[in-house]
Amino acid sequence: MCYTRRDHGLEEEARRLRAEEDTRRRREEEARRAEEKQEKPLTEKVKEMVGAR
């Protein structure tokens, strides 16, 4: 029996899933960086650290 066809399909799916995961990570990283760039007043930063709203 030849398993190359099945293996090939699995490899393609794994490659596709890795690409989707990489894309998601890049988007999250870019969103986090954009959020960090926004300057907040010092009081807001303290409130976030303490957990008060």
Brief rundown of the structure:
The chain is mainly alpha-helical and 53 residues long. 81% of the residues lie in helices and 0% in strands.
Structural summary, described in words:
With 53 residues, this protein is an all-alpha fold. It has helices at 4-37, 42-50. The radius of gyration is 21 Å and the shape is rod-shaped.
* SS summary, helix count: 2
How many β-strand stretches? 0
- Average pLDDT confidence is 83
Largest sheet: none
What percent of the residues sit in helical stretches (DSSP H or I)?
Answer: over 70%
Termini, distance in Å?
65 Å
Gyration radius, rounded: 21 Å
Strand content: under 5%
Order of helices and strands: HH
* Class from secondary-structure proportions: mainly alpha
Shape: rod-shaped
Low-pLDDT sequence parts: none
List the main descriptive attributes of the protein structure presented here.
single chain, 53 residues, mainly alpha, 81% helix
Q: Can you lay out the helices and strands and say which pair or pack?
A:
Blueprint: H1 4-37, H2 42-50
